[in-house]
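Continuing the series of single-chain predictions for the mutant panel. This is the parent chain; the variants come on the following pages.
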Amino acid sequence: MEKKIKTAYVCTQCGAIYPRWQGQCNQCGEWNSLVEERIISGRRRSTKTAAEKPGTLAQIGQEQTCGIESGLKEFDRVLGGGLLRASTVLLAGEPGIGKSTLILQAADAYTRRGLNVLYVTGEESLTQLKKRADRLSIGSDDIAVINLANLEEIVAVIENSQYQVVIIDSIQTVSSGLFQSPSGTVGQVRESAARLIEIARRNEFALFLIGHVTKEGMVAGPKILEHMVDVVLSFEGDSQYLYRLLRPVKNRYGSTFELGVFEMSPTGLAQVENPSMLFLSGIDHGNRSGAVVAASCEGSRPILVEIQALVSPASYGMPQRVAGGLDNKRLALLLAILEKRMGIPMGGNDVFVSIAGGLRLGEPAIDLAVLAAIVSSLRDIPVSSKTVLAGEVGLSGEVRAIGMPERRVAEATKLGFERIVLPEQIVRGIDTNKIELVGVASLEKTLELLF
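Parent structure:
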């Protein structure tokens, strides 16, 4: 049947298709986001297929629900404990952050578990891949590598062999012959991902797709790509620091609040099993104003970090509010609580708050430490470096309960802290004599205790 080629305009943000160009996408509201693509269409014949008989959940074998562990604990943690067969994982991150290094180390770890791995690279030559493998001391004979960017050729390689794990680096470089548009466009990414995901589910192998991100930090390509895959991992970090963070943005098989911490070294990415030691490594254990240790939790793991604040008289008419590692709006909210409930005027001061080490946290349990650091800097009164704070502050100034207090207390005890300040309602349920537990019910009581 002769196929007809026609032109359509596809939104690069949401993937909506329009017959003609228009300035704004009606679906997502973005301006100038439509790009022209040549798509192939043809008449489809209705075919009769044998209907599969539905089964019950009890008939699903336990081996089908058991994840495959790589042995990299930080990597397995964010995947929900292991990699499931027939699942698709999208790993996204900024250029040069270490995505290819991480996935190559993961491929080596899976081969050590007896799995056959196929690594398809479309961005670099096999010589470049070999040099990276030598630097990482990876020489596994079970990692099959090939340099391909054509979707049909990749599919043929996958269909002709039996692989348990397939890695595509990256999905933006794969292009199909059905489209005349270049690789990386909305149509190419959508078609390539859909074909590969279909084959992965049919042949029951795990699929890793490496993805680029835009300057806004979003995964490049259509938004529907994130809906098609089972897991979306964000690999992030600051170029000024050696550590890298692996966060699950979406996970159909586990929690999205986990966190994997890696440290970049000349021989690759090293796992950081105790991130609290990493982020508290710069503390000199001397009493300094504006520095408070907070007990946070990312997923199931506790992390102790140092909150630093600097409050100074505003030099200009409009006071500055600068937050590093936490949301600016959250900082503005906490300052409003401090001014309204405690009567501490902040309108004439510049406020700078940062999480030492460059870590970014969104947990409200650091509220108490942030406010304590701000008051400490404002009054120039230090908080004891042997004290840890954890608690969410409500709009009326009350200190609200937080989750997993036992793990926070255990982490503070392990690192040698002498006192931890927690919400009053959860202190009663913690049994320990290795660290002093102090319960507070309000922000006012906390400040009276510390200052």
